[in-house]
Structure formats: C-alpha cells, structure tokens
Automatic annotation (TrEMBL):
Main location per the UniProt record: nucleus
Domain WAC residues, every copy: 22-128
Protein name from the UniProt record: Bromodomain adjacent to zinc finger domain protein 1A isoform X1
Species per Swiss-Prot/TrEMBL record: Nicrophorus vespilloides
A Pfam short name: WAC_Acf1_DNA_bd
Length: 1296
C-alpha cells in the first residue's frame, strides 16, 4: 500500500447499519464507501495530492494512483528477478562497507554485471555462432601465467586507471552445460567458454532491478553502515555460503568511503598561501541590481506573520472585567450573540424588551433565584423549539413512530449507543400522554415549571420518526437524522445534569452546566429550517457582496485601461486641435465620473459587508477580532487553541525596516547579504542566548512581548504559552482603530486580510465602537437585590422574598400559597374544595406546613367512587378509598447505565423529599374534591357511546396523573402537575390571571377592555411596572382588532373605489345626455333607474349593490354572510331564494327524458348509474392535490387522541378509494355522501384558524371544480361560490 507520512492508508470501515435505499459516496481510487460527502471529498483531495510515497521503491511526492502504479511495476520487476542470482548478490552485499545506498548499489553492480555465478543461466556461443541457453557449472579463475601475461598486455595498460581491487572479468572462464530443451544432437554435454562468448539475457539484470532487489533486504546499522537484514540472512542461510561456492578466485575487497568535512574558503586560501594568515575574510564583488530586485521581491512576498522583521507594536485594547469566570466568558458572549442574531425568530423582545444585556447574562449565570434571567432564556429557547416542532408537525406530520423495532433487545445495564438512545426516546415520549394527557409542547413553560419541562425535553428528544419524515428532514434540515439530535449527545455525556433537574431547580446548577444546557438548546434550534435559512441568507449576502465588489474593481480597471488607451491615441493624433482637446477632456471627465461612482459603490458594499460580518480576522498572535451585534463593539479574543508550537529561534526585529521605503529596504537587503557571505559561520563560536533570544538578534527597543512575537521559549512565549489575565478586550476610540489599522503588516498572511477588512469598514466601525456599552464592564460589584423585605409584588427575582432565603424554601412557600388559593377558588366557585367541617383546620395547618397534624387521607367525591369501582377485568383488587397503585416509570429510567450511579453535589435531603410527598398528597386531596362534571379532558369525562368505556378512560387518566404526582421528587414536578389539573378545571367567570391562573393580588390585575380577561402585571411578557393609561387589550383581542381593522380598511378602500366608479359613470352619463340634447335627441326621465337600498343595512351608498336574480332583494358585498370581495359572474341568487328552492320538490319524479333542475333530488335517485371512470379520475386528481395530505388516510388515535370522541363517523379519501375499487358503491350519490363526510368532519373538528381547516376549504373548492369538469353531480350542501376567497367564519375548537 502507498505510504502517507511513513504510514499505510487506513481505509474507512463500512458501517453495519447501511440501509438499502441510503445514499452513499464511493471513492474509486481506494474502494471506500462514505456516508458523509465531506469525508468523501477530503479523501478524494488527499488521494489526488502529491504527498504519497511508494512503499517498494521509496519514490516520494506522488499521487495515490502514481504510488500504486509504482508499487505494481516494482512488484512485477521483483517477480521476474532471476532466482539463482539472489544469493550471490546478497553475499557480495554483505562484503561492502558503505553508508550510502547509492554507493553500495554501484559497487555491487560494477562487480556483478560482467561476472557470472555458479548455477546461473546464461546465453553462450558454442558452435556455428549460435547463442544457446546454458547453465554455469563452474567458474575457472586465471592461472599465475595467464595473470602475468595479462599484466604485460596493452589491454591491461589501458585499464590501469581502474580503481577496482579485484581481478579483471576477462580472465575468467566458465564451464557450462547446455539446457536439454535447447540442446542439439552434435553438441557435447559440457563446454568451457571464454568471457567473450558468454552473456546474460537482455534486461534480466539492470541497475534499476539491482537497486530494487537490494532495497528489500538492506537496513542501516548502529555504526551508520548498510548491512543485510537478519531475516534475509536466515531465509537464504547466508552464514553457510562461501565465495568459492558461487565464484572462483580471491574474493572482492570493497573500499570504505569516509566523509570528509568540507573545508571553508578562508582556510583553503590560507593553507595554500593564497592570502596571508592574518586575513580571514575574502572580498566578494557587490550584488548586481537584478539580484537585489529579486531579493526585494522575495522579501515582499506574503509570509507567516511571525517570520517578519518589520512588525509594529499593536495598540492594547481595554480588557473586559466581569463577574463571570474567565473560562466561561466566551461562552456567555456566544449566547448573547446567538440571541441577538436570531432575535426576530426567537421573539426576544417578548422576554427582554430592551434586548439581553451583559449584566443580565451575569445574573443568569450567577444568581440562584427562581426569577433569574436564566429562566427567561430557557423559556425563550424551549418555546421556540416547541413552535418549530408545531410548525413542522402541522406542515409535514413529523411525529414519532408508535412502534419501534428492537426496543426489547436493548440492555439498559450497558452504555447506550446513539441508535438505542433514539429508540428509547420514543418510549419516553409517550410518558406525557400517559400521565398528563397532552404532548410536551402543550405544557405551560413558566418560571416554576421550566426545570421539569427542560428535563423531559432532553430525555424525549431525538426519537425515531417515519421514513417519510426522515426523508423530509434529510432534504430540508441539512441531512438531519434522529441520532444527530444534540439532546441525545447531551444526555449520554451529561447524565448528572438530568439527575440534578429531577430533584432541584435549574438555577442551582453550576455555571458550566448552565452553559452546557443553553448550548444544547442553541444547537437544537440551529437544526431547524428557519434558523438554517436565516444563517444561509447571511452567508449568501456576504458572498454576493464580495463578488459584486470584485466585479466592480475589475470593471474599474478595465475602464481605466480602455479610456487611457483612447486618450493616448487621441493625443498622438495632432499637436493642437480644439476638437481633439474637447474629446479628450470629455473622456477624462467621463472616466473620473465612472471612477467616483464605482468607488462609491465599493465603499457602500464594504460597509454592508462589515455590517454583516461577525469574524473580522486574525492578527500575528492568532488573536481573533470579532464584531459583536449584541454588545456593540470590536472585540479581541486571545483564546486560540490552534496557535501551533514555538519557532526554533526568535525572528530578528529590524526597526529600520518599519515604514521603510523601497530603496531603504533594498539597501538593507544588499548589506545583509554581503555580511552573510563574508562571515565564516562554521568557525564562529556559538551565540549566547538571553531570555529566549539570541544575543545577536536582539535589537534595542521593543521586546517580543511588546511586538506580540514568538520568543521560542514555550514557558514564556506570549503566543504559545498559557495566558494570564482577561482573554477578552475591546476598542472604544477611533484613534485606537486607526492605530490598529496602521500597525497591521501587509506582508503577513493573517494581518493582510485583517487590515483589508478593517480598512474597508473603517467608517462603520468608528461609529460602531462608540456605542459599546462601557457601563457593563466598569461595575464589578457583587449582584445584590435592591429590596430585602418580603413584598406582595412578585415582580422581583426572588418573588419578593428576602435574598438570603433559599430557593427551595421560596418554591415550597409559593406552592403552599398556590394550593391554598386554588382550593379557595374551588370552594368559592362551588365546584370543589375541602369539606366545610375540616376546611379551616386544614388550611391553617397547610399554611404553617405542619404536616404531622394534618389528615392526609384522600377523600374523593362520590362520583369517583363509582368510577374506581367499575374497574376493568385487567385490574386486580377491590375498590377502596385509597388510590389504587399503578406501576410508574419515570422517563429518566431510559438514560441507561449511569442513571443511578451519578455523583452530585446537591442531593435532595430526606426532610425535603418528605415535604414534597406531603404537598403532593395535599394537592391530590384538593383534586379529588372537584366535581367530575367540572373537569375537561384529559382528566374530565370523555363523552362516548359506551358508559364503561367512558369510565375506564376517565379512571385511567386521573389515576395515572395521581400516580405520577405521588412520585414527584422536585417542586417543579409538583407545579407541572398543578397546572395540568388547573387547565382541566372549568372555571366560572371569576376574575383570575389567564397566565398563572391565580385570583390574588387584584391590585396588580390588569383587565382587558374588550374581553375582560385578567392578567397580573408581573405575569405579562414583557412585564409591566404600572397600569398603562387609556385602553389596554390582551394579545388575543389585539389580534382580532387588527384583523377587523384590516378588513374595515379594505372595505373602506373598496367603497371609495365604488364611489369613484359611480361618479365616473354619472359624469359619463351627463356628457352623453348633453350630446343627445345638442343633436336634438331627448331622453325620457322615467327611464332613469332609481337607486336600490341594501336589504340589510338600508343604505344605497358606498360599495356596489348586488341584486338577486330571483327576488327584489339587494345587498352590499360586505353585508353578505359571508362577505364577497368582488361581484360574482353570471346569475346570482340570495340565501333566501336558495332556502326556498331547496324546500321545493318536483312532483313528477318518474318523467323520463327530462333533465331535472333540482340536483339534490337527482342525487337521491336509486336508478342513477355509477360513473366509475369519472370517479376514479376525480379521486386521482384530488389525492394528488397539495392540500390533500390530511385526508388521504384515516386519522391515527396516537396522533390525535380525542378525534374519535368528537367524530363518530370518520372517513378519508383512502377509504373511499378502497370502497370504490371493491365495488361497495352502486350509485354516484353514495360516493358523494362519503366525500361530503370527509369535509364535514374536517369542519366539525378543526378550528377555522387551523392549517387542516384551511386545507379542507381549498380542497373542497378543487373537488367542486373537478366535479364540474367531469359532469358529476354533487350534493347541494357541497355547492360553494367559487368566486369567494374570503376566509370562513371562525369556529371555536373543542377544548382538550
């Protein structure tokens, strides 16, 4: 395999969980499968980069395919290497003493290439000059006489300069035996031939194959010489091989090369007496101008900022002083920036009217009070997530699967995987429906319930959805899968936070855990389509601005070149010509105007670019420059973790190069080059270092810390060492900004980009940093409450209690007061409450929280006794006064292995847990005193046909709620159960807050001037400090009034247009009459049409009057019910005539051949045939409509639990299609009756502002249109006015 950094390629493993329809990416070069496109692209780029090395030949700087081809070619060459030559080559290699592989390979090749060894197959010329394949049997060395004769021969004289220390190869003779396959009949078996008559086969042994073979068996020894690997010696048994066995004569003696240190020029000249010994320096001619220019170009190129010699001192920014610990300050600023960037989607102003400030963030992280800003932040984000989920569910029906395979096989004692955790979230999701009868997003997210809702949300997030939902998420949410939900990773990595929330409040967490929670919610929000679209719009805006600016610069350069060329041509045309001078002047003026316009556009684009940019750039010390939108200003952060390591030596700082001109720089470079060339560096003593800098490099003046440069000492380096003090700072003055821009080095790879960005947005930033909120960074006093005494006003962070009062005591006291007020409302309203005989004592003991003296027995209303007594066959035991036990599982059981073995600092004390149990029992006492008829779903009665079924449903919900209530372990869980119960109570018209459901603090109650609904001033978002002057309306009324105002304004506009049209018609009519009089034609005044009054309002002015074609009634368009926007086409009949027409019946029903005008009667005829083809076509078109998604399949009870309690005859188009295919319809009227039932059920269940209701209205119009096209008769109740676009009359949806 090819090598990358001396390592083989590690292929990506193929996942075991690939689905058949899953999209993957195949890398053909490495034959790997990738799920993620980024991993596929990274591997493709890496394979095409020239960073690979051939593992066989050692060739470097190759692509992956080139390295692979090199390996295959080398392996083929090794496979064809002659086997009988391997042992001789390795034996001779063991005799060499070389440290260079090249020298070693050359020595072996020079010896072997003209010598043939025993056992080797060669080509020999034996007779008739034919070359035949032979085998070397023996090598015959020259005798002494032959050797003496060779020495005296001319051939030996010509080879006297050869440095070889072994006998010449021409003196050897070889005894050969012919290979039998190629032997002829007239040739003897053995022959002795000379060197000149023997040769190897072509290309069998080359320098390349020699090096390739040796490289496999050679390694470097400790002494530096190359030796054979021990594995090769053992495999070929080289220890038993001698030179006589493979050759003859004396063995070769290879010379050992020694490395000679290169002598300096000065010492060479001195030794050879070319210059006196006293003179050690040599003179060198000066550099040429071209060489100096080349050096200047090299010096001017962009380099790493830490390698530049002409750096300036960067101005110091003002550090941020904060109560937040330094290691969490960056995370706090990130949260602030997130809330400011997405403030529109998050609707931040509802919680923070003036925006989230830095002091509020400090309080959110440091305070431990129930009204801390942290609660508002969590409310804001959780509500935003619930809104996103609701919108996604309404549009795309994204719900969890009811049944998920493989849940029973999950071992809860082991560590859970992402897939297992996602499956368990589906089981936990059903907990809310089972014990509270509603989805989690329907719960009230309030100050006292946010801890429990946050815990449930983290446990239930990331469940498995259907394949359709999964495909939609992949397309619209960036490939998002259930396993990618940040909450899954959060609960697997931080189970201690989940356990903390099960017993304590979220404000009691540590700062780090609070930041982790908020970050998890932020990550969840960023996966939704709205947030992704907003972020992508900003990126696209920045990209388009950069492209537009670049195009403007290119167009400006092009225009300058073209205009300059035209001007130069005109100037060459003549010496003095007024016409040419005028034309030249016009061109110059036109060019100046074009340049000014272009520069203005570029400046405007740069201002917009810096306004849309958050990260501005980096300086030489890897510090980030950030423009924050939340805390307006330019901030510097020095917490960069990827700064790398220190340089080997500090960069020399040359003050004379700072702001130097080109000539000065070239002069310095020339002088430095001459000094470097004339110095004898090898003979100079080592340079002493002081404070991490060499003494020769230290310049008087600025130090490395002042210049923000590397000192090459990791312990003290200002860049690469751990930094003390504040890591965040900011600029506030325009002078600081100008000084910062001037201190940036244009030759630095980082500072050049930073300087360009700052220079382009200089004017904007100069005004922007003036608005930096300095007051937040100057006051570092501990956060204290301004009021110390308990107050009735609950507008304070600690609900008016003393600041030193623990949060749990505050929540306990508030809960007691809430239960007392709740019971009082029930008692005063006559719908429940504690028995009168024991009520006073019960309230007194509860107010004192003296639970030891309280009677905690649950006394139920008598109707609950009947319901509990009517248990199903599955229940065991007899009915009793006590609540039957139900097997309860908290959703935290699905956290896996670590759910019970988590260490926490603040474990709930036994006394506090006992108080929670007593309060839960107290709340249950109050709950069972409420009359069942005064409870709504899910805890109230469910009206069904079967009384037994009604009782079971009622009993199970109330019992599950009671069981969950008794299992509560925190005050937040008690508050959540309380609000579930409170929402189910059918309150009378007693004035109470619509948010907290409390009727106390009436002095702080604000009533809506329209609907008389009450709201506490401190419950509103944003909170109000006093009652506003004039009229005040709640949000619901404001929305209705805005809708009415919009309709009235539209009506006024239409009335005004109608009056104008009437005036135009009257003026045109007067002109026509004047013309008739002028030409002698008179007009009878009796022919004029008299104005018609509106039947409803009695007025004839205003909008156009619509007359009925059957009766004398007339109406304004807005007086109709429902109102019309424009005049209908063709014949129009009023509602009175329609009712009259529907009451009439034709008496002759059996008259054949006559088309009946009453459609309702025709549809009820038993002899009307079934038009199957037309009905099938109608169904196909309707089910393909974009608004048909709610009506194509039956409604699932798990998705809409109360649907079948409201709708007794459900119907959908999927069922209609099945009935039509199975032949269950005999007449068109039966088909139309079921279709009418679909739309009727839609209108009956859904409110008029629901998305499904609107889909049904639009689909009904389309259904009627297709019926008309196909000549199909539909019931009269389905006849609609196709010209009507007005929304239907609002309907009040049944409360859950």
């Amino acid at each position: 395999m090819p090598l990358l950094k001396n390592r083989t390629l590690e292929k990506a493993p193929i996942s075991e969980f690939l689905r058949d329809n899953e999209e993957v990416f195949h890398c053909e070069m490495t034959n790997e499968i990738f799920r993620d496109y980024d991993d596929f692209a990274e591997k493709t780029i890496l394979c095409n980069s020239m960073v690979w090395t051939c593992s066989v030949t050692g060739k470097a700087n190759l692509t992956y395919e080139e390295a692979l081809r090199s390996e295959n070619s080398a392996k083929k060459m090794l496979a064809t290497f002659p086997e009988h030559m391997k042992i001789p080559l390795l034996y001779i290699a063991s005799l060499t003493k070389r440290s260079s592989f090249k020298d070693m390979a050359d020595d072996i090749f020079s010896f072997v290439k003209r010598r043939y060894f025993v056992g080797e197959q060669v080509d020999a010329m034996l007779v008739k000059r034919d070359w035949q394949t032979c085998k070397v049997v023996k090598v015959i060395a020259p005798s002494k006489e032959e050797l003496e004769a060779y020495k005296n021969s001319p051939e030996a004289t010509s080879n006297s300069n050869n440095n070889e220390s072994f006998l010449p190869p021409v003196l050897y003779k070889y005894k050969l035996i012919v290979v039998k396959d190629n032997a002829t009949s007239n040739v003897s078996e053995t022959s002795i031939v000379k060197f000149s008559n023997i040769r190897r086969k072509p290309f069998i042994y080359t320098t390349e194959s020699n090096k390739l073979f040796l490289k496999q068996y050679i390694e470097s020894s400790k002494g530096g010489n190359l030796v054979l690997k021990q594995s090769a010696i053992d495999f070929y048994n080289l220890n038993s091989v001698s030179f006589d066995a493979i050759f003859d004569g004396p063995g070769p003696e290879f010379k050992k090369t020694k490395k000679v240190r290169q002598e300096t020029i000065a010492s060479f000249l001195t030794k050879n007496k070319l210059i006196p010994k006293e003179t050690t320096e040599i003179t060198k001619p000066k550099l040429s101008k071209s060489e100096i220019i080349s050096m200047y170009k090299e010096w001017s190129t962009v380099k790493d900022d830490l390698l530049l010699e002409d750096q300036k001192i960067i101005p110091k920014a003002t550090p941020i002083t904060s109560l937040i610990p330094e290691n969490y300050l960056g995370d706090a600023l990130c949260i602030l920036e997130f809330m400011a960037e997405f403030s529109t989607i998050l609707e931040t102003r509802n919680y923070f009217p003036g925006g989230m400030s830095f002091k509020e963030m400090e309080r959110a992280l440091l305070e431990k009070k129930p009204g801390s800003p942290l609660v508002d932040i969590l409310q804001l984000m959780i509500n935003s997530i619930f809104v996103m989920q609701e919108n996604e569910h309404a549009r795309y029906r994204t719900t969890y699967k009811k049944k998920v395979d493989g849940i029973s096989a999950i071992n809860m004692e082991n560590e859970l995987s992402l897939t297992d955790s996602s499956k368990l979230a589906n089981v936990a999701y059903r907990w809310c429906w089972r014990y509270h009868g509603a989805a989690l997003r329907d719960f009230p997210v309030l100050n006292l319930t946010v801890s429990e809702i946050l815990r449930l949300h983290l446990i239930m997030s990331g469940g498995v959805v259907s394949e359709t939902c999964s495909s939609w998420r992949k397309a619209n949410r960036g490939g998002f899968r259930s396993e990618d939900d940040p909450a899954i990773h959060f609960r697997l990595q931080n189970p201690h936070i989940i356990k903390h929330l099960s017993s304590q409040s979220v404000v009691e967490l540590t700062i780090g855990d609070k930041i982790k929670l908020i970050t998890c919610l932020m990550d969840q929000l960023l996966t939704y389509e709205e947030f992704r679209t907003a972020a992508e719009n900003v990126r696209e805006q920045v990209r388009s601005l950069k492209i537009e600016t670049k195009n403007l610069q290119i167009a400006e350069k092009k225009q300058i070149l073209e205009s300059t060329d035209k001007i130069n041509k005109l100037k060459k045309g003549g010496s003095f010509n007024p016409t040419l001078d005028k034309e030249i002047q016009e061109l110059e003026t036109e060019l100046e105007n074009f340049k000014s316009d272009t520069e203005y556009k570029i400046i405007d684009n740069n201002q917009s670019l810096i306004r849309s940019t958050t990260h501005v750039g980096y300086d030489r010390g890897f510090r980030r420059y950030i423009k924050l939108k939340s805390l307006k200003g330019l901030y510097v952060n020095s917490d960069e973790l990827n700064a790398g390591t220190c340089l080997p030596e500090p960069t020399r700082h040359v003050p004379q190069l700072v702001n130097a001109e080109k000539d000065e720089v070239m002069k310095y470079l020339s002088k430095s080059s001459e000094e470097m060339n004339t110095s004898d560096k090898e003979n100079e003593p080592s340079v002493k270092k002081e404070n991490g800098c060499s003494e020769a490099n230290v310049e008087k003046g600025s130090s490395t810390d002042e210049l923000l440069m590397c000192s090459s000492d990791p312990a003290t380096c200002v860049i690469h060492s751990k930094k003390d003090g504040s890591s965040w700072s900011f600029f506030t003055e325009r002078e600081q900004l100008d000084e910062l821009i001037n201190s940036m080095n244009v030759r630095g790879v980082r500072e050049s980009d930073l300087k360009e960005a700052l220079s382009n947005g200089r004017e904007f930033l100069a005004k922007y940093i003036k608005t930096t909120p300095l007051k937040y960074y100057e006051d570092t006093k501990p956060i204290e409450s301004t009021k110390k005494s308990k107050s009735v006003n609950k507008n304070e962070d600690n609900f008016g209690y003393p600041d030193n009062m623990p949060i749990r005591d505050v929540m306990c006291t508030e809960l007691v007061l809430t239960i007392l007020e709740f019971e009082d409302k029930l008692y005063s309203g006559g719908i429940g409450g504690i028995n009168h005989s024991m009520r006073a004592e019960w309230r007194e003991l509860l107010e004192k929280m003296d639970f030891d003296k309280m009677d905690l027995t649950v006394h139920k209303h008598r109707e609950y006794d009947d319901l509990v007594a009517n248990v199903s066959d599955d229940d065991e035991g007899e009915a009793s006064d006590q609540i039957p036990e139900v097997i309860y599982k908290d959703p935290a059981v699905y956290l896996g292995k670590n759910k019970d073995s988590i260490e926490m600092n603040g474990v709930v004390e036994e006394k506090e847990l006992q108080t929670i149990k007593h309060l839960a029992t107290t709340l249950m006492q109050v709950a069972y005193t409420i009359f069942p008829d005064n409870l709504r779903r899910p805890m109230g009665r469910v009206v069904t046909k079967s009384a037994n079924k009604m009782n079971n449903v009622f009993k199970n919900l109330i019992l599950n709620w009671s069981t969950s209530l008794l299992a509560s372990t925190s005050f937040s869980q008690l508050y959540l159960h309380f609000y579930t119960l409170d929402d189910c109570v059918m309150w009378n018209k007693t004035v109470s807050c619509q948010i907290c459901r409390k009727a106390k603090n009436l002095t702080q109650m604000l009533l809506c001037d329209d609907c008389n609904s009450g709201y506490h001033l401190y419950c509103l978002k944003p909170k109000l400090s006093e009652v506003p002057e004039g009229e005040w309306f709640c949000k619901n009324c404001i929305k209705q009034r805005e809708e009415e105002e919009r309709r009235n304004s539209e009506a006024a506009i239409r009335k005004k247009e109608a009056l104008e049209r009437r005036k135009k018609r009257e003026s045109g009519k007067l002109e026509k009459e004047a013309e008739e009089v002028e030409f002698g034609f008179g007009s009878d005044s009796n022919d004029e049409e008299e104005p018609v009054n509106c039947t409803k309002c009695g007025d004839f002015e205003g909008d156009e009057i619509l007359k009925c074609d059957e009766c004398p009634r007339a109406y304004h368009l807005l007086c109709l019910d429902p109102p019309l926007r424009r005049m209908p086409r063709g014949k129009w009949v009023c509602n009175g005539c329609k009712e009259l027409e529907s009451s009439k019946r034709y008496k002759s029903e059996h008259v054949e051949g006559i088309r009946r005008s009453n459609r309702h009667e025709v549809e009820n005829r038993s002899d009307l045939p079934l038009h199957n083809v037309a009905l099938q076509e109608l169904l196909v078109d309707v089910m393909k409509h974009k608004d048909a998604w709610p009506f194509t399949r039956p409604v699932q009870k798990i998705e809409v639990p109360d649907y079948y309690t409201v709708i007794s005859k459900p119907m959908d188009f999927g069922t209609i299609k099945y009935n039509l295919n199975m032949g269950k319809y005999k007449y068109d009227a039966e088909f139309m009756a079921d279709a009418q039932l679909v739309f009727g059920n839609c209108n009956a269940y859904n409110s008029s502002d629901a998305e499904v209701y609107k889909c049904g209205e639009r689909l009904l119009k389309y259904f009627s249109k297709k019926c008309n096209e196909l000549n199909l008769r539909r019931p009269s109740d389905m006849n609609i006015n196709e010209e009507q676009d007005e929304e239907p009359v609002n309907k009040k949806r049944r409360m859950m």
